[in-house]
Amino acid sequence: MSVLIVAATLTLAVLGIGNHLYWLAAVALLCLYLRGDRGSSPPPPPPGGGPPPETYRAYRDRRDRQAKWERRYRRERPHEARRQQREKSR
Protein backbone atom coordinates (compact mmCIF):
# COMPACT_ATOMS: atom_id res chain seq x y z
CA MET A 1 0.00 0.00 0.00
CA SER A 2 2.79 2.42 0.84
CA VAL A 3 4.43 1.78 -2.55
CA LEU A 4 1.19 2.79 -4.22
CA ILE A 5 1.00 5.99 -2.17
CA VAL A 6 4.62 6.89 -2.99
CA ALA A 7 4.06 6.20 -6.70
CA ALA A 8 0.90 8.32 -6.75
CA THR A 9 2.67 11.14 -4.91
CA LEU A 10 5.60 11.10 -7.33
CA THR A 11 3.23 11.08 -10.29
CA LEU A 12 1.32 14.04 -8.91
CA ALA A 13 4.59 15.88 -8.20
CA VAL A 14 5.80 15.33 -11.77
CA LEU A 15 2.46 16.46 -13.16
CA GLY A 16 2.59 19.44 -10.80
CA ILE A 17 5.41 21.07 -12.76
CA GLY A 18 2.84 22.79 -14.95
CA ASN A 19 -0.09 22.89 -12.54
CA HIS A 20 0.17 23.74 -8.83
CA LEU A 21 -3.08 21.93 -8.06
CA TYR A 22 -1.27 18.60 -8.55
CA TRP A 23 1.33 19.65 -5.96
CA LEU A 24 -1.45 20.37 -3.50
CA ALA A 25 -3.01 16.99 -4.26
CA ALA A 26 0.33 15.25 -3.64
CA VAL A 27 0.74 16.98 -0.28
CA ALA A 28 -2.85 16.15 0.68
CA LEU A 29 -2.29 12.51 -0.26
CA LEU A 30 0.82 12.29 1.89
CA CYS A 31 -0.96 13.97 4.83
CA LEU A 32 -3.88 11.54 4.62
CA TYR A 33 -1.51 8.59 4.42
CA LEU A 34 0.51 9.72 7.46
CA ARG A 35 -2.61 10.55 9.47
CA GLY A 36 -4.17 7.16 8.65
CA ASP A 37 -1.09 5.30 9.89
CA ARG A 38 -1.30 6.80 13.37
CA GLY A 39 -4.97 6.06 13.88
CA SER A 40 -4.86 2.41 12.90
CA SER A 41 -7.00 0.13 15.01
CA PRO A 42 -5.61 -2.86 16.91
CA PRO A 43 -5.72 -6.25 15.19
CA PRO A 44 -9.00 -8.17 15.50
CA PRO A 45 -9.21 -10.86 18.19
CA PRO A 46 -8.44 -14.42 17.11
CA PRO A 47 -11.44 -16.48 15.97
CA GLY A 48 -13.04 -18.67 18.55
CA GLY A 49 -16.02 -19.08 20.78
CA GLY A 50 -14.96 -16.35 23.17
CA PRO A 51 -13.37 -16.78 26.56
CA PRO A 52 -13.42 -20.24 28.10
CA PRO A 53 -16.23 -20.88 30.58
CA GLU A 54 -15.44 -20.12 34.17
CA THR A 55 -17.08 -23.22 35.59
CA TYR A 56 -17.81 -26.72 34.47
CA ARG A 57 -21.53 -25.95 34.72
CA ALA A 58 -21.19 -23.08 32.25
CA TYR A 59 -19.30 -25.41 29.91
CA ARG A 60 -22.03 -28.07 30.19
CA ASP A 61 -24.77 -25.51 29.60
CA ARG A 62 -23.05 -24.24 26.46
CA ARG A 63 -22.39 -27.78 25.22
CA ASP A 64 -26.01 -28.81 25.82
CA ARG A 65 -27.30 -25.71 24.05
CA GLN A 66 -25.08 -26.46 21.05
CA ALA A 67 -26.25 -30.08 20.96
CA LYS A 68 -29.88 -28.92 21.08
CA TRP A 69 -29.29 -26.64 18.05
CA GLU A 70 -27.52 -29.43 16.16
CA ARG A 71 -30.39 -31.85 16.79
CA ARG A 72 -32.89 -29.24 15.63
CA TYR A 73 -30.84 -28.59 12.48
CA ARG A 74 -30.68 -32.31 11.66
CA ARG A 75 -34.42 -32.65 12.25
CA GLU A 76 -35.36 -29.65 10.08
CA ARG A 77 -32.81 -30.28 7.29
CA PRO A 78 -32.31 -34.04 7.00
CA HIS A 79 -30.82 -34.01 3.49
CA GLU A 80 -28.26 -31.34 4.32
CA ALA A 81 -27.36 -33.08 7.58
CA ARG A 82 -26.80 -36.40 5.78
CA ARG A 83 -24.64 -34.71 3.16
CA GLN A 84 -22.51 -33.07 5.85
CA GLN A 85 -22.17 -36.37 7.68
CA ARG A 86 -21.00 -38.09 4.46
CA GLU A 87 -18.43 -35.37 3.85
CA LYS A 88 -17.17 -35.61 7.41
CA SER A 89 -16.72 -39.38 7.22
CA ARG A 90 -14.52 -39.18 4.11
Describe, in short, the structure shown:
This protein has 90 residues and is mainly alpha-helical.
Question: Descriptors for this entry?
Answer:
elongated; single chain; mainly alpha; 90 residues
Task: Summarize the topology.
Layout: H1 2-15, H2 20-38, H3 56-76, H4 78-89
Helix pairs in contact: 1-2, 3-4
Structure report:
The protein has 90 residues and is mainly α. It has 4 helices and no strands. Helix 1 packs antiparallel against helix 2 and helix 3 packs across helix 4. The protein starts with a helix and ends with a helix.
Percentage of residues in helical conformation:
over 70%
Oligomer: single chain
Strand content: under 5%
The average pLDDT score comes to 81
Number of strands: 0
Query: Helical region count?
Result: 4
Order of helices and strands: HHHH
Spans with pLDDT under 50 lasting ≥5 residues? Answer: none
For the termini, the CA-CA separation is 42 Å
Large-scale geometry? elongated
Q: Radius of gyration, Cα only, in angstroms?
A: 28 Å
Structural class by helix and strand composition: mainly alpha
Biggest pleated sheet: none
